[in-house]
């Protein structure tokens, strides 16, 4: 897992885990805000497929960003990819649900 293996690029396992978690969390919140901005926050927006497209795009953008940040994505296993996807999805879901529930206008 990204938090358990030592990287050969000079990044400690702890920093690697912190970097992956931080990027996944920020991407999830960004996806939630972008979903609210693009799809809206009215009750009908909850079924808008554009929000899933935003989520998928922000999941895919993370892996090149991790490479630029010095994380060797080639060493990722299935568990690492699932971790990134789950963390991004969970924070997207929570942030977009809060914006939908409050009806905030962006």
TrEMBL record:
**Which residue spans traverse the membrane?**
20-38, 50-69, 81-100
Pfam families named among the record's database cross-references: EMC6_arch
* Alphabetical UniProt keywords: Membrane, Transmembrane, Transmembrane helix
Alphabetical list of InterPro entries matching this protein: EMC6-arch
Protein name from the UniProt record: Uncharacterized protein
